[in-house]
Amino acid sequence: MSKNLITRIIVAAITIPIILWICYQGGAWLFGMVMLFALLAISEFLINEGHRPGSFYFWFGLLAVAFLVLSRYEAASTWFWVQFLFSGVSGILVVFLISGMIFATGKEPPAELFTRHSRLVWGVFYIGLLYPYVYLLGNQYSQLADLQVAGGDWLLFLFGVLWVGDTAAMGFGKWIGKHKLAPGVSPNKTVEGFVGGIVGALLIGVIMYFWKFNRLEWYHVLVLAGGCSVFGQVGDLVESMWKRSIGIKDSSPLIPGHGGVLDRFDSLLFAAPFMFFYRLLIIVS
Questions:
Q1: Residue 151 near residue 136 (C-beta atoms within 8 A)
Q2: Distance set, CA 130 to CA 5, 40, 52, 72, 229 (Å)
C-alpha cells in the first residue's frame, strides 16, 4: 500500500465523521461548513487564475462568493439589502455588471481583459451559485410533508452515492476500461468506469431505500442515486476542463492525499442541485 493511499485513508477516516456530524446538526453548523468550503474553493480558483491573495480581484471574487452563499441562508432572509443585491437573478447581475465595469477600465489588451473577466465570472458563479444547494438540501425542506426524512439523511445519501460511486468508477475503469469517455479533458476516465460509477451509486440507492427512504417510492430513490452519479461524474469533468485549461492537476495541496477542496468536492457541486430540484419538483409537488 502506497504512502499516498495511507494518507488518503487516514484523512478520510478523520474528516468523514466530522462532515456527517455537521450535516446532521444542520442550521448554522451546516451553513458554516458550506461557507468555509465555498471560500476555500474560490480562493483556490483565484490563486490558480493568477490573482494574488490580497489583490483587488482576489477580494472581489471572495466577497462575491460570500454574499451569494449568504443570500441562501435562512437567517439572512430578513436582511433586505442582502436579498436585494445577491439573491437569484439580481445577484448574478450585480456580480456581472460590477466586474465588467472594473475589467473594462483595465490597462491590459482588450482580449486579455475579456478573457480574465469571463474566467473570474465563471469561477464566482460556479462556486457561489452551486455550493449553497448543499446547505438547502440538508436544511430546508428537511421534513417535507409525510416523508419524515431528516436533512442529514439526504446529505448522507448524496455523499454515499458520490463517494462509493467514485470508488466504483475507479475500480471498473482499471478493471475493464477500454473506451475513453472524455479524452480531451480527462484521458484516464472511461465509459466502463462511468457505468461502474452508476452501478455503485444504484447499490447505495438500494441500501438507503431500505434503511432511510422507505417512505419514498423505490423508483424515486433509484433515479436520485443514478442521477446524482451522472451529474456528479460530469461535474467532475467540468472542473477537469477548467484545470486542464490552465495546466494544473490539483487545485491545491490543502487536503493531504486528496488535493484541494475543489478536487475533493467537485462532483458535489453538480449532484446537489440535481437532488434538490428532483426532490422539490418531482417528489414533493
A1: no
A2: 29, 14, 24, 11, 16
80-89 burial code (b ≥16 CB/10 A, e <16): eebbebbbee
| CA dihedral (173, 177, 180, 184) positive or negative | positive
Residues 270-280 have pLDDT tens digits of: 999 999 999 98
Kindly state the cell numbers that stand for 122.
Answer: 465563471
Report the length, in residues, of the chain.
285
Neighbours of 272 (CB within 10 A): 29
Separation CA 154–CA 138 (nearest Å)? 6
Give strand pairing partners of 190: 180
Residue type, 256: P
Which residue ranges in the chain fall short of pLDDT 70?
1, 74-89, 140-147
157-175: pLDDT as tens digits: 999 999 999 999 999 999 9
In degrees, rounded to 5, the angle at the alpha carbon of residue 128 between the alpha carbons of residues 126 and 130 is: 60
The predicted pLDDT at position 35 comes to: 96
- Grid cell of 55 as nine digits: 489583490
Closest by CA position to 141, among listed 229, 133, 205? 133
Interatomic CA distance for residues 257 and 14, integer angstroms:
13
